[in-house]
Design a protein that fits this description.
With 447 residues, the protein is an all-alpha fold. Helix content is 79%, strand content 1%. The structure holds tryptophan (TRP).
């Protein structure tokens, strides 16, 4: 067997893992949820849950992956301790792989819309606004299909190139560009009339906004945003060297992911208030009237109100969003592709082509049945499957895996970890508290 690929450097891994975490969940999902859930209060609850729940769950995935050095199915099998837990591990692994593939199928549709808006901005800048508007018309099947195909081809071509030449190289190039573009846009938006009201709503919390629904939304948002439950982080962990300290790397990824979400909010929330100031939408009692249509409705309107420069700003913004989506989608596709290359004779290129085509075909089925399938698949995967898989992974680490093996894996790359709080608390935390808290929030969401 050929030797297994590894990330060539710590920063390469951090870029890739942060690239997986940072995506439409941060730039579209987080600001939208913040706007719909009372602003700053949501931001605070989100930050608490990201560190209290998502960070420990991320550690579980990274530690399993790096120890077992394999895809989710093979990893869970290899740390199981008897025929029953092996069967359970196999089941959970396949559930994770299916969930990752389904998430990619709707994620690619949304990303296709973003590519459509990018094409619109490009053609408009080149003086062909009518052709452009057709591309961004999300009720037009041909435009949706074109966006989907372009996005899936980009995703597949990166994954076909492997870990260092594909995932690591592209994430390391694209992520810093994203940060730069985001900062420039924030600078621009903050000079506009109305932006200061947005800053206020975003930064000054009203604690009376906090309720169980808000907590459940924040938890789901944190799990989605950190790519948890489906083995994406587990597989990335399997390409990480034993020299690296997992708790530190995991904390860095958590911080960077939360930081980009906060930055995206700093762009989008003031932009909403600028749009309100210009009479393009309404804010009643601090609640934005518009909801999920935010990016696809409000922002293009905002850009077009900027005059000639607007289509250039739109071009930059949708390029930024495409980049963020791409470094996330590659982590989803790597989940089934790593399973196929490790458990079948298929080469990476063949596996990528076959699996990518299947996912694109399924996404096309969703596109043809938007009304019935789109929200259904999103709820099935992100609302139900991700938290359940998170619980399953915590249980595997806490209850199935031999404690000595777990502790030895934690020590790799982390000298002196035995004297830290992480060492004392984390194993018990994922064994008891994490699953209990996730199940509690999950139970509440079903009420
Ligand atoms: N975290 C990414 C985002 O915020 C999306 C993502 C990438 C993801 N890989 C995942 C979500 C795996 C769930 C599972 O957009």
């Amino acid at each position: 067997m050929a030797s297994r690929e590894q990330f060539s450097s710590r920063s390469g891994f951090i870029m890739a893992a942060a690239g997986s975490a940072i995506g439409l969940g941060n730039i579209w999902g987080f600001p939208t949820q913040t706007a719909n859930n009372g602003g700053a209060a949501f931001v605070m609850v989100y930050l608490v849950l990201a560190f209290l729940l998502a960070y420990p769950a991320l550690m579980a995935e990274l530690i399993i992956g790096r120890h077992a050095r394999a895809n989710m199915v093979t990893s869970l099998r290899s740390i199981s301790t008897g025929p029953l837990s092996r069967l359970l591990g196999t089941g959970i692994g396949f559930y994770g792989v299916m969930t990752a593939s389904l998430i990619l199928s709707f994620y690619a549709i949304v990303s296709g819309w973003i590519i459509g808006h990018f094409g619109d901005a490009l053609l408009t800048t080149l003086g062909m606004p009518d052709a452009g508007h057709t591309l961004s018309d999300d009720s037009n099947f041909n435009s949706n299909f074109l966006g989907l195909i372009v996005f899936m081809c980009l995703t597949m071509s990166i994954i076909a190139s492997g870990v260092t030449d594909g995932i690591e190289k592209w994430s390391s190039r694209l992520m810093p560009m994203l940060l730069l573009l985001l900062t420039l846009l924030i600078g621009y938006v903050l000079t506009q009339d109305g932006a200061s009201d947005g800053l206020q709503a975003y930064l000054i919390p009203d604690f009376s906004d906090i309720n169980p629904d808000l907590v459940v939304s924040a938890m789901g948002q944190a799990f989605f945003s950190m790519s948890l439950g489906v083995g994406a982080m587990l597989v990335y962990g399997s390409y990480l060297s034993d020299q690296e300290s997992l708790p530190k790397i995991g904390a860095t990824v958590t911080l960077v992911d939360a930081g980009i979400a906060i930055l995206a909010g700093l762009l989008i929330i003031p932009a909403i208030y600028v749009a309100a100031h210009n009479g393009q939408l309404e804010i009643i009692d601090g609640q934005v009237q518009g909801g999920p249509g935010l990016i696809f409705g409000v922002l293009p309107a905002l850009f077009s109100s900027m005059g000639a420069i607007g289509s250039v700003v739109a071009l930059v913004f949708f390029a930024l969003l495409t980049i963020a989506a791409l470094t996330s989608s590659i982590s989803m596709l790597e989940v089934p592709v790593s399973l196929a290359t490790e458990e079948t004779p298929a080469s990476r290129k063949t596996a990528t082509l076959i699996i990518g085509t299947l996912i694109t075909a399924f996404a096309t089925v969703i596109l043809l049945n938007m009304g019935t399938l789109f929200d259904f698949i999103i709820n099935l995967t992100t609302v139900y499957s991700q938290p359940l898989l998170g619980v399953a992974l915590c249980i595997f680490v806490g209850w199935v895996w031999h404690r000595n093996d777990l502790l030895t894996s934690m020590q790799a790359g982390s000298d002196g970890i035995e004297n830290t709080l992480f060492w004392t608390i984390w194993p018990l935390y994922v064994q008891y508290l994490c699953p209990a808290l996730i199940l509690l929030a999950f139970y509440q969401s079903l009420q």
